[in-house]
Amino acid sequence: MKIGIVGLGKMGILHASILNALEGCSVAAICEKERLVLEFAKKIIPHVAFYSDVISMVNNEKLDAVFVTTPISTHLPILREIIDSVSIPVFMEKPLAASYDEALMMAQLSKEKRIITMVGYQKRFAPSFSTAKSILDSGQIGKPLVFRAHSFVSSVFKEGRGWRFKKGEGGALLDLGSHLIDLLTFYFGVPDWVSGFDIQIASRQVEDFAHALFGFESGLKGYVDVSWSVEGYRLPETKIEVIGSEGRIEVSDDRLFVSGNQSKEDSNVKEFTAPDLYKGVSFLIGDPEYCTEDEFFLNSIKNGKEAHPDFSQASIVNKVIEGIHKSSLGKKVVWLDDSKDR
Amino acid sequence: MTVKIDKLLIGDNPFNGVSHRSRERGRGVAAMLSEREIVKVIETALDNGAGGLVFSVTPKMLSVLKYMKEKGWNRELHLYPIVPDVLSLVNESAELGMAGLLSRFLEGLSVQGKLKFMVKGGLAALSLSPVELIKIYLDTEIARINATLPPGAETRAIFLHEVVTDTLVSLRIPNILQEYCKHIQSKFGVVPGLVTRNFPKLTEFAQFSTASLDLSVIMTPFNAVGFQMNPSRQHCEDALLKQNRLTCEVIAMSILAAGRLTLEQAIRYLASLSQLSACVVGISNESQAKKTFSFLKDNFVFRKY
């Protein structure tokens, strides 16, 4: 398979490296708008065609798929440029868009073109979080009743530069919390309502901390805390704890703990750490889930099947984040299904 | 070039708050350990058979070296730095973007007088070959280490971080790897090493690459449960068997599989791989240092030279 990469930032390099190492797959073309990066890459990376515009790349190269790893404000225009020229599968780095409206538009456009899409919420494919999904689906802990979750990293302690710190494009929720929110929708579906607040600590335009309560139709309730301004988290840490009618599960990036109810004869307590859950991947750069997610997308294309999260599923993350912002501004519960607003 | 690698090496992950078993645990350990305590752990490890320290060029580890220098450390210590500090670069690129990161790097070099001209926006620097720029970058990284070296310390090998090694392998860029190795040898007179988490891919690449990549030392995971061994434990063991014929030194890392294995279990597995030259283990306190290295010293059978 021949792949095109749009955007040669850290995520572009990461996906290019994984894809080029996979059997039967190669990065055929790279599109980069920044001249300095483009010229530098041209001199270093062999066997790849370089472009500074997406339209030329997709028209000149017979690509099997495109990976877009640019800042989120460019996602919609780049998608338009691609699908106006060719109907090929598109992988978009997370978050899908800056706003729910844009995300919905992207889902709609790709649906009209009937292309396979996927968004880079790779934690779904992490050994711990994907095993937790199977356990939850199996009913091992019964009906989920309550959850609490957090996503923290120590990265923003002064006003930052770049799109991650611009109003409407960045913030801790979109940048960091979107993974956690995607996991929650992966596990439990779309929340009925959200209520929360967000505050600024180091940034002037975007939130550095957010707390939100979620309610689901099933009766499940829980809360999330998200911040990129917490000391002591050199690496990002995402953790979800779910209490069910029959037991409890605790899952983080590198640990999974499951326990049945203590009242039962066999409470079935199990703990797995990263080495217990680890399975070799075709090519490891960063965490193993990046390789698993890329292979999943390529296999979906080969088999003509839908990937996940597709644009439509990933747009829910934008919807939830906007709900939290609205709730924070209006100091009220926000119903995500408009018909239920009261 | 004669390769002189210590057989038992101290890893720095616990000092930097890295625990592959649990991020939560890693945070706790790093928060607890001061420079003084880290130096005590290193001393205990050396007392019990360790010969050197493998470390990433993180602010914390540079501060540990600086502390040793200030305290007049004059004991023999062999250093094996890993460059670059990838986590800092990734964090910076998230803020500045790749173009911003490149510009800042190039502007930094011109301000320091490392480039013959002032660079505005960096484009002018592109008249230089990327290889030259990478050499200049390596020089500045190594100068940062040398500035903090305590009197008794000696750099034995300089390793390229696995993210860089593996990216160069997958994107098939042998000349940069080759130039890296040459430069480390000729300019600094030390052994060039490569860290990888894709050992079979690297050795295959080195073997079939047109640039005839000459590997001296590779550091890569080997443990009984296959943790971090890609694409599988079997593939890595097969590659190790083949590599032995190419006379490359292989240092095993992640030998305890992030605490999943006991020392006895780890050694039982490593004993089956007679091609290994050395191993590196991260330790977070003095009693662990004593127990780990005295056990390894008595039980780890290394490759015969």
Q: Which spans of chain B of ≥5 residues are poorly predicted at pLDDT below 50? A: none
Strand order of the largest sheet of chain B: 1-2-3-5-6-7-8-9
* Count of runs of 4 or more consecutive helical residues of chain A: 10
Structural class of chain B: alpha/beta
Q: Report the radius of gyration of chain A as a whole number of Å.
A: 20 Å
Count of the separate structural domains of chain B: 1
Tally of structural domains of chain A? 2
Multimerization status: heterodimer
Largest sheet composition of chain B: 8 strands, parallel, barrel
CATH topology of the largest domain in chain A: Dihydrodipicolinate Reductase, domain 2
Would you count the extended β strands of chain B for me? 9
For this structure, what is the CATH class of the largest domain in chain A? Alpha Beta
Describe the structure.
The complex is a heterodimer of chains A (342) and B (305). Chain A has 342 residues and is of the alpha/beta class. Chain A has helices at residues 10-21, 35-44, 54-60, 75-85, 100-113, 127-138, 172-188, 274-277, 288-302, 311-330; strands at 2-6, 26-31, 49-51, 65-68, 90-92, 117-119, 144-152, 193-199, 209-215, 221-227, 237-244, 247-252, 255-260, 270-273, 334-335. In chain A, helix 4 runs parallel beside helix 5. Chain A starts with a strand and ends in a 7-residue tail after the last strand. The mean pLDDT of chain A is 94. Chain B has a single domain (8-95, 130-299), classed as Alpha-Beta Barrel (TIM Barrel). By secondary structure, chain B is an alpha/beta fold. In chain B, helix 11 links the parallel strand 8 (249-253) and strand 9 (278-282). Chain B has helices at residues 13-16, 23-32, 35-47, 59-70, 86-111, 130-146, 162-170, 174-188, 199-208, 233-245, 263-271, 286-299; strands spanning 8-11, 52-56, 77-83, 153-155, 157-160, 191-195, 217-221, 249-253, 278-282. Chains A and B meet through helix 1, helix 2 and helix 8 of A and helix 2, helix 5 and helix 7 of B.
